[in-house]
TrEMBL record:
Protein name in UniProt: Hcy-binding domain-containing protein
Lineage of origin: Eukaryota, Metazoa, Ecdysozoa, Arthropoda, Hexapoda
GO molecular function: metal ion binding; S-adenosylmethionine-homocysteine S-methyltransferase activity
Species name: Drosophila gunungcola
Domain Hcy-binding: 1-321
Cofactor: Zn(2+)
One of the Pfam families matching this protein, by short name: S-methyl_trans
Annotated keywords: Metal-binding, Methyltransferase, Transferase, Zinc
């Protein structure tokens, strides 16, 4: 599954889900993961929104899923919590089947194997519910093994339910990414994945490491293991879109096209979150679709959206990507 054309990833799941459930997502310690238990129909509908608007890839709604979180906030036991994670992956499969049926009935051709279902594997900090996924502060005191053991339960549940790859995403610190990639190489040699970092500005991860250093460290580690083909891409998500080009230039700017590290990017809309007033500045946002040519030029193979991006934003990104893929073919 090497990525030859640029693919369209879905948008902000919790954002689009508000279309179906209203604004009851933000502020919940389980965030959108609560609805995996309480409103599975809304999960399926949200996946379908993105598929119907041109997403090649949908991510499972497992970003904030954890056994600890479900035991604490839904009062499930361990096995019930793991089963809920598996079932969340199945909801993505139901959406995919419905979408393929719609396409078949409308006589629309879909490329073989698509759309892809990729498991969302959010950072250790997300389940702490203290904002540390945006600082990576836990890297300073939580041992790597504790982090990988915590991730392993959810990864195995997602793999058991059947996914095409893992999205190791919103990772704020180099240590967590390295520990996860090493674990995947050691214990899950046939599983493909991408790694997307959370960055606080145009050069550094949330925890302070240089993005280019962290990405190169992973790419070099995979080269030593002869495992670069397992990694679909390395990149960023849940960042301000204006940071993406300088981040990518810091990594791929001096590389020949043939040597570029394949990149993944799904930024926020450009709105800024204010604890008191919520999301601010929508009227000043540059549409994400406008950035597609420059990101693709720098090696982006997967482009989508994160917080505050809706299905309509993905449709526009998809149109820009199709134009780019056409131009690449012509050249």
């Amino acid at each position: 599954m090497g990525l030859t054309r640029v693919l369209v990833k879905d948008g902000g799941f919790g954002t689009q889900m508000t279309v179906h459930v209203g604004n009851s997502v933000d502020g919940d310690p389980l965030w959108s993961a609560r609805f995996n238990a309480t409103n599975p129909a809304a999960i399926i509908s949200t996946h379908l929104d993105f598929l119907q608007n041109g997403a090649d890839i949908i991510l499972t709604n497992t970003y904030q899923s954890s056994v600890e979180g479900y035991m604490e906030y839904l009062e499930l036991d361990e096995e019930q919590s793991v089963e809920l994670i598996r079932n969340t992956v199945r909801l993505a499969h139901i959406a995919k089947e419905r979408y393929l049926t719609e396409c078949y009935q409308a006589q629309l051709a879909i490329p073989e194997g698509y759309p892809l279902i990729i498991a969302s594997i959010g950072p250790f900090g997300a389940h702490l519910h203290d904002g540390s996924e945006y600082t990576g502060s836990y890297a300073d005191y939580v041992p790597a093994k504790e982090i990988t053991d915590w991730h392993r339960v959810r990864i195995e549940a997602c793999l058991e339910a059947g996914v095409d790859a893992l999205a190791i995403e919103t990772i704020p610190c180099q240590m967590e990414a390295e520990a996860l990639v090493e674990m995947l190489c050691d214990d899950y040699p046939n599983v493909k994945f991408w790694v997307a970092f959370q960055c606080k500005d145009e050069s550094t991860l949330a925890h302070g490491e240089a993005f280019a250093d962290a990405a190169n460290a992973i790419w070099d580690f995979l080269a030593e293991r002869n495992a670069q083909d397992k990694c679909l891409a390395i990149g960023v998500n849940c960042v301000h879109p204006k940071f993406v080009t300088p981040l990518f230039k810091s990594l791929n700017g001096d590389r020949q096209i043939a040597e570029q590290i394949p990149l993944v990017v799904y930024p926020n809309s450009g709105e800024v979150y204010d604890v008191v007033n919520g999301w601010q500045g929508k009227e000043h946002c540059v549409p994400l679709a406008n950035y597609v040519p420059e990101w693709a030029q720098l090696g982006a193979k997967v482009i989508g959206g994160c917080c505050r991006t809706y299905a309509r934003d993905i449709r526009h990104i998809g149109e820009a990507i199709r134009n780019w893929n056409k131009l690449k073919k012509l050249s």
